[in-house]
Model the fold of this input.
Amino acid sequence: MMNSPLLITSIMQFAKKNHATSEIVSVTKDDPLHRYSYAEAFARVGQLANALARLGVKQGDRIGTLAWNDHRHLELYYAVSCSSLICHTINPRLFESQIEYIINDAEDRWMFVDPQFVPLLEGLVDKIPGVQGFIVMTDEAHMPQTELLNLYCYETLIAGESESFDWPSLDENAACSLCYTSGTTGSPKGVMYSHRSTVLHSYAVALPDLFSLSVNDAVLPVVPMFHVNAWGMPYAVPMVGAKLVLPGPKMGDGAAIGDLIAGEGVTLAAGVPTVWMALLADLRESGKRLPSLKRVVIGGAACPTSIMSDFQQHGVMVHHAWGMTEISPVGTFNTLKPGMDRLDEKEQWKVRAKQGRAVFGIEMKIVDDENNELPWDGKAFGALKVRGPWVCAGYFGLEGYSDTHDEDGWLCTGDVATIDPEGYMQITDRTKDVIKSGGEWISSIELENTAMGHPAVAEAAVIGVSHPKWSERPLLVVVRNAEQELRREEMLSWFDGKVANWCRPDDVVFVDELPHTATGKLQKLALRKQFEDYVFPSTG
Ligand code: AMP
Done:
């Protein structure tokens, strides 16, 4: 067989030749509904690659992005990776200090930003000395007023460039993109994807028992392109030539998402549970229907069965999926096996609520505290470990870091799960000490340190408690200093201006003591158990 390298460049060239007329539709700040063909998109990708070369970039340079899902961000995905650079997508919702850390750690050379994130960079510019300049992803008419130096307008930058670019022949193991995860304790860590891992992951994502992608689909990723490459859709969709619909900054706007689905004939959409609640609420209020929509993939956090059954009323099949930044991200996916459709409704829901079966390419196992593999009986639960060609073997710049990989090279996911005899995995808990709210991580340690800064706090712990809209929200549990007064309102307002608004604890509970291990370590699992039935006052 021919030893053809697996390259993102090949996806682009294939899509350009075979699906030149397929459409890409996106919402941007400067155009409510931008529409063009794959042929036009990839012509501009050539122009952008030429423009990047003119900026003086060198092979392997990291190019940072702070942007929503739209056609320009897609152009960057291809122009950067296919011209031997590394596309580093950054989550603009992180704490500013984390964004600063990530840009410096990645040594980003240039930053491509949506106009709305320019103020964020203005605040950071003195702390990110390695960045040579900024490109605002808009046209001249919509350029923001700013003092940032070395600033370009995206459309002007690429305007005079040739559409043809001499794409380099790359090693399939060359790095193509970088995404930091803040899903574990300590500083965010960079996961570097390769061309090979990305192409293999795209093949897997497109399979019938996964996203089941076809040229006849219109696909709407409502998961951000700054979060694990929008679950691989920007690659898997062009691989099959389907229509791609990108919601820009409208991500959390239920009515706008509904209009986009109806207007563009979207057949498949994907995102975290929270975004679908907004859409379903809007459908309930407006009485609108979404006849084109057939499937919705929900992952990133446990999907409540109520969302699945609400979608079912609209004739939409929901598939639950599980993944991680470290695994590109898709690991398991839920479709029913033959005969399961004959199970009674209650039993079917039990299966569908699980995070699904492993995808070929991902090996998974659950182990006990001594690393003994546990049976797939649906009852035994243990630490979930995975390995495979699109699972990271380590982190960018952290050679020798071993907290997340065992000695046999398996990735320790930080999730606790059961696996049933049919291979359906179900997450039952998490060992990593973080809270996932609306698909984004909140560091409990950061909140605990902030709380401990209050003179009346003797000890503080923050845990994630289940929330009907956000999946989880932070609950602060505090032991007060015996001799000092501290009321709920005073404790909660202590976070004002110290952490981003959306990260502040939703409530505080005062206790006499917190559970500890024999070595004095806080027992988060015990604390989560203690508060498993807790209901936030705002939702009770
Ligand atoms: P991230 O790296 O930010 O994509 O987060 C990955 C983590 O999100 C996983 O290790 C899980 O803890 C959580 N997660 C992802 N998908 C699901 C799901 N379907 N159900 C429950 N937790 C999930």
